[in-house]
Amino acid sequence: MDKAPRMKPPSPDRPAQAAPGGALAAQARALLARARGLNSRAPRAGSIPLFSGGRRIGLLSPEACAQISASTLSALFDFSGRRAVLTPAGGATLEETLALCAETFHAAGFFFQWRSELLDVRDLDDETVIARAERGLFRYFGMATRCVYAVGRDPAGGIFLCRRSLSKQVDPGLWDALAAGLIAAGETPGTSLARELAEEAGLCAGDWRAAGGWLRLDVRRPVQEGWMHEDAFVLPVDVLEPGRVHNTDGEVSAIVCEDLAQVLARIARDEIPCDTALALLAVLAP
Question: Is the C or the N end of the chain the one with fewer CB within 10 Å?
Fold first, then answer.
């Protein structure tokens, strides 16, 4: 497990950041436009919607359709009519069927992530929660996930970034927001953000406060596992006790607090994942 890094307290004479202007503001706006483009891309040609019980729950890539059609669970799927329909068999529930699909398709190597974490499965048209499923299955099936980001500042205006551990399955070694993570089954954005701030930044409720309202951002793009359909809930936060910022779950290998110019430079060098960049810039870009 990685060591739990801790932030050094900021210098008391560190000047407060002024509102960005000129070339810095133009760079932020250009990077925001790029991030929006990278996170709003069309599915792979030949992708088809996935339905179950008359509800649209996901999007399958052509590769996934071929793999599933040749799998031991092919009888559960109907691929006619330019759509895929998943029908539970033998009196099983959708949740039980999704669990079977996750175990079978992960064992077959169709997707690589496995977290033993459950996320809510939602109807893509009305956002109703209809089941739960293993986290690793979501992008393979193109099902909708929800995530949170805490964009944190210290009292002098510095922006916190946390480096993802090299052991992470996704984006190892890249830089993330102060805290970020998927919303678990049954959680609200608020409870998820508080949990992530405690796990990733070691901050309790009295150590931070909201510095604005929630932003909701759409992330839609092809990824290695299939299709990323993610709704991001982003909250700017003020860190009241910067010296207490430290990682507790081993998923962060370093924590820094940088000014806007440094953060923009990291985004321009692709040191920050494009979805995290979108979340940061939605708060930081003027």
Answer: N
Q: Which fold has domain 48-143?
A: Transcription Regulator spoIIAA (3.30.750)
Segment 110-116 long-range contacts (CB within 8 Å, at least 24 positions apart): 110/64, 110/67, 110/68, 110/71, 110/140, 111/136, 111/137, 111/139, 111/140, 111/225, 111/226, 112/136, 112/169, 112/225, 113/139, 113/169, 113/170, 113/225
Question: What is the pTM (predicted TM-score) of this model?
Answer: 0.89
Instruction: Give CA–CA dist 263/38, Å, rounded.
Output: 18
Domain 22-41+145-284 grouped into CATH 3.90.79.10? yes
Quote the CA–CA distance of 280 and 152 in Å, as a whole number: 9
Using DSSP bridges, classify how beta strands 175-176 and 208-210 pair: parallel, antiparallel or unpaired.
unpaired
Map out the domains of the chain as residue ranges.
Answer: 22-41+145-284, 48-143
CA distance 50 to 60: 6
Q: What share of the chain is helix, strand, coil (3-state, %, to 5)?
A: 30, 30, 40
Query: From CA 77, how far away is CA 49, in angstroms rounded?
Result: 12
Please name the amino acid found at residue 243.
G
